[in-house]
Amino acid sequence: MSFGASFLGGANSRLLPVSIPLRFFLLGLVFQAAGWAVLLTNAADLAGFNGGLGPVLAAVHLLTLGVLTMTAMGASYQFLPIVTRQALMRFWPARLSFWLVAAGVIILAYAMARLWPFGLDLGAGLVAAGLLIFVILTGDNLRRASGVPVVAAHGWLALVALSAVVIAGFLLISDFRSGGLGDHQAVAIFHMVLAIFGFMGLFAVGFSYILVPMFALAHVDISRAAWAQFLLSVFAIIGFLLGVQTHRGPLMIASASAGFIAAAIYIWAMWTSLRAGMRKRLGVSFLLIRVSWGFLLVGVFLGGAMVANVPVPNTPALFGFVVLVGWLLTFLMGVLQRIMPFLASMHITDKTGKPPLLSSLTPKRPLLVHAAFHFLAVGLVSVGIVVNSAILIRFGAASGLVAVAAFAVFSGHILVQLRKR
Amino acid sequence: MKSGLPGRHWQDKDGLHIDVRSLSPPQPMVAILGQLDQPDQQGPVTVHHDREPIYLYPELAERGWTWKLVAGEIGEVRLILSRPS
Questions:
Q1: pTM for this one?
Q2: Measured between alpha carbons, how far is A73 from A71 in angstroms, rounded to an integer?
Q3: For the ranges A9-13, A89-93, A140-144, A193-197, which has the lowest average pLDDT?
Q4: Which helix (H) or strand (E) holds B80?
């Protein structure tokens, strides 16, 4: 086996140093633990949460920025150059974006929990600077991409949404500090919907069209479904935001319905890939991924129910928890446990020059424990929100912490293998 | 040889050839592993690619296949895959 001959079309330049994606993934795990810990100690505030500064908002941003965005950045730096066949411009900006977002999330979350105005500005400024680098690097890569138009379309729209999310975030912080924003609630909904469905959602869905067929080894054309889902998603997001700004209930309900159909088409495309796939035993990672798709549908349904004034107890908190933790976090943890061993195996070789087996880098027991406690956490907290029970939420958050600890054992195993070889 | 997989494949004196150039991800990996996973496939298999398939290597190792990069046409990455007996 030989690697890295010079005539090989620059494959090595597309392979990032393993430390770059891993630092994003591992710090994301730390932030996830911090988010559960904040929820554990402030469980009574969650069920009635409807926005505003405080520990719950800090926990939300530890999850959205600290876990979901951090991991999306690491995965994007690692995989986009492979998917688009375009090398990353430079490595140092990726490292710099990590430090900026990492420091920014810590300061921002602390400032949100402690109502510290200067910390809000400083934290948001650092996060925005890191995200700007991410947008430039990823945009440059997408600009030079060809052959994966539907993935690129999702990526572009996600970057546009992220930019708008950051601007709306600054407006909200400015309003917290000195007021002056006409309709704070409308801007907060704009910020939240674009962050969840525009940035993180489209990123996750776009990557799915590559990753799921790759994991399942599926040869099936789902591009028409993917385009239909993409267009419906665009209509749903823009229509919903317009409905919120102009206070038009029917437009919001029509947009939420379009979003539900888009989600159903996406899930149908994913199931089609899995059915056509040559690899049928996909392990516990795909248990998480399949369940996350169910939570996507439940989340969009809850969003529609909220604007239609269907009487579901504590709908804002339930909706937020279901889409952020039930859908996005569950999906992300399922994907991470597939790609982390993959990444490691490409960077280590044994005495004979061979890479280690993927199976030797994937200890099953920690992943089973993680899945069990993660599902327990999602279930307990969801029920706790509906019945307004701080005790259930507290037990749920504790289960979430156990799940993170189990995933840390899995990650530690991979790190030890990396250091050994 | 399994039909219905992406890419071009043909049998030559030196074994099966798979041409996955111009396929977009993840179809090259699907095409190659789909052929290797056939029960009667013992190799060697020659892969014609347009880039080094770094994501393929862990999957090859998991299946007990070895690979060697050899010279190909300009702009081509050619691999010989074999299964040690």
A1: 0.90
A2: 5
A3: A9-13
A4: strand B77-82
Two structure tokens written together for A223 = 């591009």
Instruction: Specify whether the CB–CB gap between A293 and A267 falls below 8 A.
Output: yes
Domain ranges in chain B are: 8-82
Interface predicted TM-score (ipTM): 0.78
In terms of Cβ atoms closer than 10 Å to its own Cβ (0-12, 13-18, 19+), residue A180 is exposed
CA-CA distance, A101 to B55, in Å (whole number)? 28
CB contact under 8 A, A8 and B51: yes
Give the separation between CA A130 and CA A133, rounded to whole angstroms: 5
- A241, two tokens: 């935001």
Q: Which of A3, A6, A8, A15 is the mutation pick for testing B, counting most B CBs within 10 A?
A: A8
CA atoms within 13 A on the CB side of B9: 21
Pick the closest to residue A384 from A322, A334, A323 (CA basis). A322
The residue of chain A with its CA nearest to that of B74 is A7
Q: Which residues pair with B12 in a beta bridge?
A: B15
Of chain A residues 346-375, which have a CB less than 8 A from chain B? 346, 354-359
The CATH number assigned to the domain with range B8-82 reads 3.30.110.40
CA pair distance A215, B30, nearest whole angstrom: 9
- Please name the residue that has the structure tokens 């090398």: A87
* Cα-only R_g, chain B: 12
Q: What is the CA radius of gyration of chain A?
A: 21
Residue B11, beta-bridge partner list: B16
Closest CA in chain A for residue B22? A147
CB B33 within 8 A of CB B61: no
pLDDT digits 0-9 by tens, A287-312: 999 999 999 999 999 999 998 888 88
State whether A345 and B61 contact (CB < 8 Å). Answer: yes
